[in-house]
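Working notes for the structural subgroup meeting. M.R. asked for a predicted model of this chain before we commit to crystallization trials. I am recording the input and output together here so anyone reviewing the notebook later can reproduce the run.

Input as submitted:
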Amino acid sequence: MHLLWLYTSLALLAEVAPPAFRYLPDSRVVLESATPGAVIRYTFEDRDPDKSAGVYFGPVDVPVGRVLRARVFSAGNAEASPVLTIAGRPQPSTLVEVTQNRDWKNYDWATRHLAILERNQRLKPDILLLGDSITHFWGGEPSDARARGPLSYQKYFGAYKATNIGYGWDRTENVLWRLRHGEVDGILPRVVMVMIGTNNMNLNTTEEIAAGVTAICEELHLRLPQSKILLLGIFPRGAKPDATRDKIEAVNREIAKLHGTRNITYMDIGKVFLETDGSIAPAIMNDYLHPTEAGYERWGEAITPTLKKLLGN
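Returned structure, recorded in token form:
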């Protein structure tokens, strides 16, 4: 009786457990096993994985409508775990590339895109400014009548060949579309300055926004492997500290982890726009979102030492 209990217990201990899994913010699946020396194999076929199935090496994209089947094989494939099945789930909107025309009453998004493509044919920039309206309204070319900081733009970028590819109302998904449809083709900027994500604040979670910013940096590094990326934390907004400010800080903590990877230098300069009590003065951002000339001056001054180091000679 005691021997039977012992043999049964040992058999249970020796049984190979199925893989554990978790989703990344971009909906890819991570598989893990606690069994020493084990191998995870998986398939998208309508069958359970056997020894002929591919080995898991890293995060897997499971498309909507597909099912991933995975199981753990012990060392030497002697034993196999029960099968784990995982259905695909939609990607967050921050990663689904799409055009936009939310500011149609003021300018045509598509027209700006074409203007940037045309400019790339004529000028190969040293510096590329990439973002939403906060970047767009600083100034530079392609020109825009709503430039709020032309003096500081000239002061900090006038000595360089620079192109401003900020767009009003852009979210991370719109930037991804632009990068994949020609806006960095045929150019080789020494530095790309990136500041994006504030327009996703009311639509997406902290993790989704950080995933969108990460995807943009990955896309830039893929298409411009020699360019250095100056990634800025999302700027504070609103007259006083509030829940949105807290969320911005949470996103910035996540994207700060990109520092030192993919040619990325991360900076959070948000405090330069704040008063000692944490408020934003109308003289710095008169709508508590877009810098004024004085606000852009603070931005330029804050990044210049780092920008010069990245530009080198």
